[in-house]
Design goal:
With 291 residues, the protein is mainly α. The protein is 74% helix and 3% strand. The longest helix has 32 residues. Belongs to the binding-protein-dependent transport system permease family. LivHM subfamily.
Length: 291
């Protein structure tokens, strides 16, 4: 294998890692604020893919506008789901298990809804930008460059919102203690709904960017949500920056690993990393060790 080919694989790993990071960041944001595991996260990703397929590939709407509509549409659906299921269950005893069961039910419902609406056929979406970036012997499709640039911009914007805005302060206060935050005037229930919608919106961003690379189908969310859970474990449960670092780390290790072995080992490498972290550092890269 030449060094150029190895470098291309690493760069592809970084780009795929940026998608893992967005998916994981959405999941971590929801868990960090509400302490629930959203098993419907992959299906919100799938809905984002079908939104972009319908708007861009079938209706010829500009891809930027198609992705924006997809993000808003998925976020609104997620907010509705949160208000009708999670928000109700959080007020009851045993919510830790019941919310998992509820999001699993939502996942199955959305998957079957997509199957009924669009069938089991795999749908393709054209590239948003054509051509190759070529530097010497190094080549990379402009579509992948676009994915990386947009992913980094979205994650930077989210990090800035969480760190420097009143909404971000309210999210952090709710994440630390929702009841105490409510006492001082923070609308904790509304913050829960908004963060749930934001997490799903991040999944829709990833789906919109990856739709031209991977086929759109009712089962497309499953592989990504599994990787998102791995990313959340690597970065530390509920840690937004940890999910970002974990996503890039997973993407790079996967790329190097399959370069040295074969693509069939991709999932083995990911789960091997997760098991290794659970063994050596179960609280993740950015998590805090419980005493």
């Amino acid at each position: 294998m030449t060094f150029t080919l190895f470098l291309e694989q690493v760069v592809n790993g970084i780009i795929l890692g940026s998608m893992y990071a967005i998916m994981g960041a959405g999941l971590a944001l929801i868990y960090g604020t509400m302490r629930i595991l959203n098993f419907a996260h992959g299906e919100f990703y799938m809905l984002g893919g079908f939104f972009v397929f319908f708007l861009f590939a079938q209706q010829n709407i500009h891809p930027v506008l198609a992705i924006i509509i997809a993000v808003i549409g998925v976020a609104l659906i997620a907010a509705l789901v949160q208000r009708m299921t999670v928000s109700v269950l959080l007020k009851r005893e045993g919510w830790a298990f019941s919310t998992i069961a509820a999001t699993l039910g939502v996942s199955i419902f959305l998957q079957n809804l997509a199957l009924a609406l669009w069938g089991e056929r795999f749908q393709s979406v054209p590239y948003f930008v054509e051509g190759l970036l070529q530097v010497g012997q190094f080549r990379l499709p402009w579509q992948r460059v676009l994915i990386f640039v947009v992913a980094v911009a979205v994650m930077a914007a989210m990090a800035a919102v969480l760190r420097w805005t009143r909404f971000g302060w309210a999210v952090r206060a709710t994440a630390q203690d929702a009841e105490a935050a409510a006492v001082v005037g923070v609308p904790a229930a509304r913050i829960h709904t908004i963060t749930f919608a934001l997490g799903a919106g991040l999944a829709a961003v990833a789906a919109g960017l990856l739709a031209p690379v991977f086929a759109v189908n009712p089962w497309m969310g499953l592989p990504l949500i599994i990787k998102a859970f791995v990313v959340v474990v690597l970065g530390g449960l509920g840690s937004f920056p940890g999910a970002i670092v974990g996503g890039f780390l997973l993407g790079i290790v996967e790329a190097v690993g399959i370069t040295l072995t074969s693509s069939e080992w991709r999932d083995v490498i990911a789960f091997g990393m997760m098991i290794l972290f659970l063994w050596v550092r179960p609280w993740g890269l950015f998590g805090v060790k419980e005493r």
